[in-house]
Structures are given as structure tokens and as C-alpha cells.
Amino acid sequence: MKTEFNLHFGGFYHSEHSERIDCMAEALSIEDVNFAETNEEYIKCYINAMNGALDINVEYIALDSPRFYNFETDTARVIISPKDRALIVDGYSADAKEYINEASSSRDGFFSFYDGYEEVIKDKSIFMEYLFKYILQDIDLDFEFDIY
To answer: HSE-up of 117 (CA within 13 Å, CB side)?
Structure first.
């Protein structure tokens, strides 16, 4: 069965992604840019580049943008096949264990529902979220996209 999860790519609020889009938009009249469509195109291109870099096929479902950016940022809802999930888990889970333990542990101001690696791996969606956060922190994706 395929696994749906949120891909945390850094979002479009004061990020490297928004800066890249803004730089391209400045070449045009900013009033003519449809940022919702541009963000949608951008994340599709980002996922294609990620797929190429990792030699997998994560499928894009939708871009989720929060109503307010004070607690969270944009994520992409995606789906991964069991075959590609196994490739990612086999290739990265051992290296990511320490990262996941630290990132998922409760601490002041954060109560985790999945405290530590052993809890995270029980939920495939949550595990994929953490695993891709780990993987994407070290990958520099280069790709082209269109401004709408």
C-alpha cells in the first residue's frame, strides 16, 4: 500500500524558495505574478528534482499552506510506493536514527506524540516525514520552474 505524507521542504515564507521566486518575479511586474500558481509549479519541479536526485518516484498530491505562518509553513502532500519507500528506508534510516531521536523528542515548549525513533517508525507517514526532513537537509536541488 502506498504511503501518503507531508513533505517538509522549507515552505514559501521567508525561505530560500520564496527568495528564488521573488528574484524571478522582480524581472516581471510583480502585480502580474500569480503566486499561488507559481508556488504550485515550483513545488512540482522541486519534487521532480528530488525524485531524480534520489532515483525514486514520489507523487505530488497538493500544496498545503497554513492560514498563518506563526507556527508552521507550507508542506507538500505526497505519496510514495512501497518499493520507493523501501529504497529510502534501506538507504537512509540507519543514518537518520540519531536525527529522528533528537527531532522527535519532547522538550521545553514541545510535547511529542512520537517520542524517539522507536515510536516514529510505528507510523509510516510520520516516519517518512522525518526521514525526508533528514535527507533533504543535505541535498541541494537545482531545477527550473515557470512564473505565472
So the answer is: 13
Domain assignments of the chain as residue spans, ordered by start: 3-136
Our CA angle for 140, 10, 109, nearest 5°, is: 130
Strands 75-80 and 59-64 come out as: antiparallel
Would you give per-residue pLDDT tens digits along the chain (148 residues)? 999 999 999 999 999 999 999 888 888 877 788 999 999 999 999 999 999 999 999 999 999 999 998 889 999 999 999 999 999 999 999 999 999 999 998 888 888 899 899 999 999 999 999 999 999 998 999 999 998 9
Q: At 94, phi and psi to the nearest 5?
A: -65, -45
Instruction: Provide CB contacts within 8 A for 139, sequence distance 6+.
Output: 50, 53, 54
